[in-house]
Amino acid sequence: MKTVVFLLALLVISSGYFINESFAEISENQAFLLEGSGFAVTEESIRVSEIDLGLSSQKQSGSTINFVTEDGFVTLDNEEFVISKLNGKFLRQGQYIRINGNIESSNGFDTTISFFGRLVEESKDASVYGFTGRITTPDDSYKVLYTTKLSTLSKIDKVATETKKSDQNTIHILKGSSSQTVTKYFSKDRISLEPGTTITFVNDDIVSHKIVSGAGLGTHSSVLSGKVVICEQQDTKVKAGSSYIQSNCDFTLDGRINSNEIKPGESISIKFTETGFYRLLDTNYPWMRIDGYVFPSSTNLVLGTTTNQQGN
């Protein structure tokens, strides 16, 4: 067991030596999605662990930018922990990430986490970090090893021309998106914007679509098979936009966004008024998802795009 732990740790830690001059594109007042998986290890066992966090960067001081965790969860095998109070820092222009704080189990027990990440590689759309650290539950203390993706969002200048603004504020429902065989369903599936911003959804598909907002669909949902239980009655006990819910539903509507039917070739404009995270999906094709965050103090509209990874 010790040999396995040593080799896993060596793999993650040594990856940091390949990033001597790499820096992630991190700045104030941005939203990020940190998604990944790895292992949680004790002397007796190795458990699969996943991490899914929504972050928002705060004020910069020197080469350090503080951030707060708005939403997310951490798993140990099939046990899920929701975010209680987590804070962190982007260090040395995003070369490192530190996360500390508390998460809460379904039984209400507090668990502490302490993670440290090193930038491994970056592209125009995302940055890859290798994380090590510890998860401490009331019963055990786990060493953790993660490989994660931090979604990168491109900024759009607000003084852009009206033509560019119109294009940037439009999300296309792509042709063929009603089938899981395609790799992309929306022209943009990661959005960050100011309160009061209007986004136009254009249906380029050959079937009708309906976009709603809600909570749920964490990584352990049945979204891959399409057998998702969607509850249309709003649950006031569920935090709007959260990724994890303790319910018989995989996804429950929160009442903030409802496009109703968008027929082929038609469009609808929707205003995002409330701050916070938005989880959007198509009720008939639940693999079609958009993650969004509305900033209370952002000065730029930000629209990002990724290749859809079903079930993430």
From TrEMBL:
<protein>
    <recommendedName>
        <fullName>Blue (type 1) copper domain-containing protein</fullName>
    </recommendedName>
</protein>
<dbReference type="InterPro" id="IPR052721">
    <property type="entry name" value="ET_Amicyanin"/>
</dbReference>
<dbReference type="InterPro" id="IPR008972">
    <property type="entry name" value="Cupredoxin"/>
</dbReference>
